[in-house]
Write a structure and sequence with these properties.
single chain, Nonspecific Lipid-transfer Protein, Chain A, alpha+beta, 2 domains, five-stranded mixed β-sheet, SCP2 sterol transfer family protein, SCP2_sterol-bd_dom_sf, SCP2_sterol-bd_dom
Length: about 240
Amino acid sequence: MASSVDQVFELITKNVAADPGLVKRVGGVYHFDIDGKVWTVDLKNGNGSVKSGKDGKADCTITIKGDDFLSLASGKLNGQTAFMQGKLKLGGNMGLAMKLGQLFENKSGAAPQQQASSGAIEVAFNEIQKNISADLSLVNKINGVYQFDITLASGDVQKWAVDLKTGTSPGSVSKGAPPKADCTLALKEEDFVNMLTGKADGQSLFMQGKLKMTGNMGLAMKLGQVVANKQPKQAKL
């Protein structure tokens, strides 16, 4: 196990060199801000690179303390827990945050991938909660309860509830299945975040069989309003 931040990035460098396909699969530039020192992991240009310092524009920024970063990289710290405790801050493309675990696969298996993606899902639903709080009329306009069944990279299914039904004003977002859902949407974690960030269109995901919907289809058509304040032209169903 790496005992320093520098050693972790040395291992990431080896993983990037050993797997040229990472650039094609990830397609983004990360900036890691660790104890005030920035590292750049470029998986967007050429064969990919890892550099000390801020190089170019980041598509995804991760801010974390050194000890927490080492714990995260080794699998001792859960990414979702770190995010909820304020130890891990994410900025930019959440879809890229979900792919972060691929950098650590050779070192610590699939656990970091699951942690990073879970953190991205938390970010997504936190943003939805902010949008609901900023637009109290959503309850009257939508009048329904959504259940999201999101399949993680590990194969586990994470359930979330978005309650925008009359009588529950101002609406709420919670982890876990609601008592009764009017519309249920099931999809993989990566497709979920890509849909919210505009990288994937909900209608296309549905036609490809990547998004499954049951219940009130009219509510599915209104889902874009939930993220309209954040991604007014991107989230579509």
